[in-house]
Write a structure and sequence with these properties.
The protein contains eight helices and 16 strands. It has one domain (8-277): 4-Layer Sandwich (Metallo-beta-lactamase, Chain A), CATH 3.60.15.10. The protein has a seven-stranded mixed beta sheet. Strands 9-10-11-12-14-15-16 form a seven-stranded mixed beta sheet. A two-stranded antiparallel ribbon has the order 3-13. It is α+β, with helices and mostly antiparallel strands.
Length: 283
């Protein structure tokens, strides 16, 4: 048992812990369908002092003799993140103990931490589980050739990570990826962008990946997309559909850019949505 109080939730025999990888830098000018001044005002009114820092969460799932990691952070790519392995150690887990990594998608702030500076796998014993559409997209040379210059480095990072784990790579389309964990396709942000729903002992939680990057803006305004979205219209439609679902079901959510507390619930507020963070629960 660690003395560090990481945000954590208990679902039956599953313990889900939010492990910070640090931050990435991105400005409000990357948002679309909103005036930057309005976006800034929304951040300020929510008490967000630094609108250029986006927190990166990974999620550790322990139970049933498994040690599973959902995403691996940025690993220092572009000086983003890089704190995952140190924070895992504080949570009592060494990289060699992780036996499965579920990827939500292959953007650099989710796969950069899979490979170290020498090109070796950070998690030597982990099976890498990825949506088949996600792999197909990043390995397609046509997609690489059509990508804007600023995005081409993303292909190299994704390909390096996938190649490094090619001998223990498993793909899926939908459905259960391991007992009590079901993949939920959430297209738009990337071709194979995937959430993971965990169900145990009558409790449930959805790790919704990159449904939002600026939660205080995109939850009340799901029509607002970000330049990182491959299909901004589809991403907005997926976000609206999911906000309706999780608010109706009162489903506990976790998100890679949801903030340091890691867990929250979405509620309807008039004709919009709001977020309430759950904080720490050892239940």
């Amino acid at each position: 048992m660690t003395n560090i109080a990481f945000p954590s939730q208990q679902l039956g025999d599953l313990t889900i812990t939010a492990i910070s990888d640090g931050y990435l830098n991105a400005g409000l000018d990357l948002l679309s369908n909103i005036d930057p001044a309005d976006a800034s005002r929304m951040q300020e009114s929510a008490g967000v002092n630094d609108s250029t820092s986006i927190h990166i969460n990974c999620y550790l799932v322990r139970g049933g003799s498994r040690t599973v990691l959902i995403d691996a952070g940025a690993g220092g790519f572009r000086q983003w993140g890089g704190r995952l392995t140190a924070n895992l150690a504080l949570a009592g887990v060494q990289p060699s103990e992780v036996d499965m990594i579920l990827l939500t998608h292959a953007h650099p702030d989710h796969v950069g931490g899979l490979v170290d500076a020498s090109g070796e796998a950070v998690f030597p014993n982990a099976e890498l589980v990825v949506h088949n559409r996600e792999i197909a997209f990043w390995r397609d040379d046509g997609n690489l050739s059509r990508a804007p210059e600023r995005a081409r480095g993303n292909f190299l990072v994704a390909r390096q990570a996938l190649d490094c784990y090619r001998d223990r790579l498993r793909t899926f389309d939908a459905g259960e990826v391991l007992p009590a964990v079901t993949a939920m396709p959430l297209p738009g942000h990337t071709a194979g962008h995937t959430g993971y729903r965990l169900d145990s002992a009558g409790k449930n939680l959805l790790v919704w990946a990159d449904i939002v990057h600026f939660p205080r803006i995109q939850i009340p305004r799901p029509d607002v997309s970000i330049a990182f979205d491959q299909d901004s219209h589809l991403a907005a439609a997926t976000r609206s559909r999911l906000l309706d679902l999780v608010s109706s079901e009162r489903l506990l959510i976790a998100g890679m850019h949801l903030g340091e507390l890691g867990f929250a619930r979405i509620e309807r507020r008039g004709g919009s949505y709001g977020v309430t963070y759950e904080g720490l629960s050892r239940g």
